Amino acid sequence: MKTIILSLSLLSLVIATSCKKSSPNEGDQTKTPQEINDFVATGPKIAIALGGNAWVKTTSGEVINNNGLANWTNSAAVTSVYFRTETPGIITVKLRMKVPSGNSSFKVSTGTQSITATASNTSFDTVAVGNFNITTKGYTRFDIQGISKTGNYFGDVSDLIISGKPVTDSVSYVKDNIDSRFYWGRRGPSVHVNYVIPDAIKNNVEWFYNEINVPVGSDPIGSYFMSNGFGEGYFGIQVNSATERRVLFSLWSPFPTDDPATIPDDKKIRLIKKGTAVQSGEFGNEGSGGQSYLVYPWVAGKTYAFLTRAQPDAATNKTIYTSYFKPADGNWTLIASFERPATNTRLKGMYSFLENFNAEMGNIERKANYANQWAIDTQGNWTEITGMKFTGDDIANRGYRKDVGGGVNGNQFFLRNGGFFSDAVALKQNFNRPASGAAHPVIDFTQLP
Questions:
Q1: Which of 101, 185, 261, 278 is the most buried if burial means most Cβ atoms within 10 Å?
Q2: What is the pLDDT of residue 44?
Q3: 350 burial type by CB count under 10 A (0-12 exposed, 13-18 middle, 19+ buried)
Q4: Which of 122, 193, 196 is nearest to 155 (CA)?
Q5: What is the pLDDT of residues 242-261, one digit of tens each?
Q6: 35 — phi, psi (to 5°)?
Q7: Distance between CA 131 and CA 342 in Å, rounded?
Q8: Which Pfam families does this UniProt record tie to the protein (predicted)?
């Protein structure tokens, strides 16, 4: 039968000959041809690399790095590995692992099924676990937990190896680490609402209005609920920690770089003004430019409004972008106004997105509702936006993660990602929400701060 080898981890081996502590940054080393042959001799099988498909719940030093699970000492630590199959059936499970010294006993579980196994090999090898019955198609989670050990460490685990009827090339998981996909895969798929702006106004939009309501319990740390995205920037709310939340407005420089220090002076984003208590500066790593944020304790279950303006100046070839934020029971607050050089455009390419920026939280679900979208042209005419196209990022488009959702929820659009839910929504679909049936929001633009 055709042998399936779909994990970058099959190409690397970390060799250990003592009981030294496993390093989170321990380098990959190439296996010998005989080791590779032994590893893939029977099939079909797939090696699910923990480096891109696992999370560890721990209060001690266990970590998931590109090589897999390391520093495994605590029997209370639970490492969860996820993958999706399109058919049910019996799956045979093995682990590719090593034990620095001594003997280790551990259990592998899914649902109510649990099997105990042992290992004592001091170099990476396959360790048989047993057979599990996968009763439905969709995502499956396997948990790995230590029971007892005679050495200092339970071991290092690089791959969960699966074979059996459900194991075909349709299995979904993060298959490689090209372009840091283990990192992006553990963050989870990003999903987008791409708004359909009517042709009559799409080149003449001065203002864009949108609302976000995050359902209670759908706001884990690392979430970015972006409301007003456009060709040159984005504006939304984040969960930065257990104690801090932000309203964030960022604008990319026209100079393409991930390092803001390399931007020439004539391509830098210039701050025009900012609101009270708003912090401003530069950002990098995902493009570079100007950034502003307000530390603000926004709350799930409440509705917040976002308003963005673009003012191009053809004479100077510069455009000023300004964003405002408002809670349902409050007044408009200025976040910031930035000037972007080498730019002469109105608001175009309007979109929203939902992403997770904390890789340790990529196995937790998040969701947001996006409602009451309006585009306002230069003559002050309001047009309600009721159409969108649902899209995703590289991880979603490759099918490495299929826990994606988007569409219509009543008279709102919604986005959903993370958590390995199985009722995915296919990407690249068009959706239309019902019009609100109400008048547009009342805003006195002359009184905005």
A1: 185
A2: 83
A3: buried
A4: 122
A5: 999 999 999 999 998 888 88
A6: -65, -40
A7: 61
A8: DUF3472, DUF5077
Angle CA 190–293–419, to nearest 5: 25
The two structure tokens encoding residue 181: 């996909």
Planar angle of CA 148, 154, 156, nearest 5 degrees? 160
**Distance (Å, rounded) from C-alpha 270 to C-alpha 279?**
14
Identity (one letter) of the amino acid at 189?
A: P
The residues, ordered by sequence, that sit 6+ positions from 112 with a Cβ below 8 Å of its Cβ are: none
Residue ranges per domain, the chain? 8-176, 188-447
8-176: what CATH class? mainly beta
At 236, give phi and psi (nearest 5°). -175, -160
pLDDT digits (tens, 9 = 90+) for 311-320: 999 999 999 9
Q: Are 168 and 367 in contact (CB under 8 A)?
A: no
Look at the domain 188-447 and name its fold: Jelly Rolls (2.60.120)
Amino acid identity, position 140? T
- Cβ contacts of 312 within 8 Å, gap of 6 or more: 318, 319, 343, 344, 345, 346
Token pair for 25: 């940054």
Q: In whole angstroms, give the CA distance from residue 182 to residue 176.
A: 7
- Specify the pTM: 0.88
* Residues contacting 85, CB < 8 A, separation 6+: 91, 134, 137, 138, 140, 166, 167, 170, 171
Query: What 3-state DSSP class applies to 445?
Result: helix
The amino acid occupying position 272 is I
Contacts of 130 (CB under 8 A, 6+ apart): 92, 93, 108, 115, 117
Q: How many helices and strands, by DSSP H and E, does the chain display?
A: 4, 29
Mean pLDDT of 284-296: 89
Q: Are 367 and 415 contacting, i.e. CB atoms less than 8 angstroms apart?
A: yes
What number is the average pLDDT over the span 326-351? 96
Rounded Cα gap, residues 385 and 395, in angstroms: 28
Contact, 214 vs 81, CB < 8 A?
no
Give mean pLDDT, residues 352-357: 98
Q: Is the dihedral of CA 173, 177, 182, 185 positive or negative?
A: negative
Backbone angles phi, psi at 4, to 5 degrees: -110, 120
First to last CA, the chain: 69
What mean pLDDT comes out for the span 5-10?
36
Could you give the 3-state DSSP secondary structure of residue 1?
coil
3-class secondary structure, 186: helix
Q: What CA–CA distances, in Å, run from 400 to 65, 83, 191?
A: 18, 9, 14
In the three-class reduction of DSSP (H, G, I as helix; E, B as strand; rest coil), residue 361 is classed as helix
